[in-house]
Amino acid sequence: MRARMLHASALAEGVDTDTLLRGHGRALPGTRTGWIDVSIRTLSPLFVGQAPVDGAVNRSLRVDGRPAVPGSTLRGLLRHTLRMLTGGETGPVNTPRLFFRAPVRLDPDSRRGAVPVRTRAVVGAQHERYRRLRGGRTRQGFLLHRDGEWFVKEVPRGRRVPRNSGTALRISFGDLRASLERWPFGAEFPDPPTATAYGPHTFEPHRPWQYREVFAVVLSDPDRRRWRPPAAARIAPTREEAREYLRECGTPGEVVRCVVVLTGVAGARRANAHLFPVPEELARGAARGPGGDFPVRDCHPVPRELVRLVDSADQVTRYQVENFPDEVSMVEGGAGRPGPGRLPLHSPEPVWFTVAAEADGDGRRWVTSFGRAGGYRVAVGGADPVRRAVPEELWSPQHGDADRGRRGNRPVDVPRALFGDLDVLRGEVSASRGRVRVGYALGDGAGADHPGGPRRVRLLSPQRGCFANYLLQPDPGRYGERPDLVSWAHEGDVGLGGYKVFLHRYRDGAGVELDEAAGAADDTCRDIVPLREGLVLTGRITFTNLTDGEVGALLRALLLGNPADGGDARDPEHAHKIGLGKSLGLGSVHLTPRLYLVDRRARATSPDVDAGVVRADAERVAAFLEAFDAALARARLGRADPARWTEVEQARDVLLASRWRRRLPWEWTRPMTLEEFATYPVLPGLVERFERFDARAAAAGG
């Protein structure tokens, strides 16, 4: 829905859309300026903030000791709600950090018990399809730089012990310490810290081991499963000492020159180190140091766009800066990193990577994704994950684009007009500045915590819960091909269309069921202290030069289908969800807005603090809502009838998803198990699910 469709009151005064979006410093005819005081009442426990550390108790966000909801959270809620109601741009989705996980392969010997045959077949097919689309397995190799170009050289195949090219070795920490007892390495190797903040360079005893060159003793193991990488029995400082140990074993095997690679935040129970076999060219030093030379015909080229993205400020996180300083290098004199955490120019860098499924015209298979120890993984299947996630119609003008002028003039939609641009890629056209500002919401700090002490929540795989929460399921027969609704894509093939929401999950009389925090939590759980139910926080939304329709849009995003005064705050018809743990039932809130309008001229001519400020009564609020509802009905149904706004498909779905008083039963909204997800990867749509519930409720009432 174009923003212009809400600008009728300004257009009637001769103010066009371009003038409206640029007129921040002066009052424009046909517009409103003021603020909305918002009361947020928690209907279920609420947790806002982060819970990054397992084993610690994490409290919901506080500001000066008072429970708080950040303005960015409320702003995101408003923008997302308006985007759903008006069909706005989906915008960047978790960009540019896009993580994609392979479908889990079910182990028939696992402790899950008997796995249904259909589940095993469905998940197995998904897993094999994923591997086939991705161009094979994840490989290991060395990232190399030469003359401004980047390449990846696979680790070599095994000679006497079978091992595919691109497959690294591993060694258990126990065997590594046994090697230290036999040979003097000059460094110890204690167990890594259990905290997820562990990094090989930040943990001082492990610093000498990252990228250290050793000689691994690999023994033949006829009982080893083919898909498991071979393990090294020992590592030695020199080739001669490794060969001596191999002779003592009396078992066929080989000695392999390797570098040690320690991973970072992979989990608290890490028990292995990686050993990357060094290719012969690198062992000779051909690719080491400035101006190194190596045969590129045996390497996989890396797109410049991929390197630029990986080396950008968005990907060079604090972990990268701390654990990849210039001294972490395979060569003497430093790796030649342009800055801490950046990719090295003078030293090979051990990486995990994938390649394209098909070779190009020159027979080369380009790298599609790569990452390093404990760091980033760039989305598979495209040189630029941002452009893969955002539909082409929504791209901002980029340097080098032949059609950047056309891209810079794309129509402004409603969320963009109110809140400004969401562009993450710097272009040549100035971004739109928002006309809505959202501040923090604060509550009373006394007795704000949920009673009963810390609660334990288990971290969920996002795939298991997300499919049921999309307003528009991937049904081309019903919705058609809508590129502006693509919000999640995998391997350029599987796509979910729509806007993601979380249904309310609450058990009458019992609330949200969360386990008590008893004993030590493992790395799949977090102990949190959420805010209690019934807590009230207040915040303020300020706006400048909004038309009647845009003020109505803000109010509709706050009220949803509730009355103009917000309705019953303790048991409303509709409610929002914010914060963390939404799929577990946390974060259900009711919003009550109070609208105040400001007459700038009256305030400028009077010293009275209340001059020009008027609280809008119910009749005026209804008029603003009617202006937006009529514009929405006209845009989607072809007739400006405000009473029909709920007939718009997306508005209907938003109202269903936000139902609190007549929400779906507790057992209908629990997260799926892996087996259920394999059998029912996409649940019925919202309309069908609520029709079933309403029919059952009507039958029970009758």
TrEMBL record:
GO BP terms: defense response to virus
Keywords: Antiviral defense
NAD recorded as keyword: no
InterPro entries assigned to the protein according to its UniProt record, in alphabetical order: CRISPR-assoc_RAMP_BGP1436, RAMP_III_fam
Domain CRISPR type III-associated protein: 40-98
Residue ranges of the TM segments: none
Assembly mode: Part of the Csm effector complex that includes Cas10, Csm2, Csm3, Csm4 and Csm5.
The protein, known as: TIGR03986 family CRISPR-associated RAMP protein
Organism, scientific name: Thermobifida halotolerans
Organism placement in taxonomy: Bacteria, Bacillati, Actinomycetota, Actinomycetes, Streptosporangiales
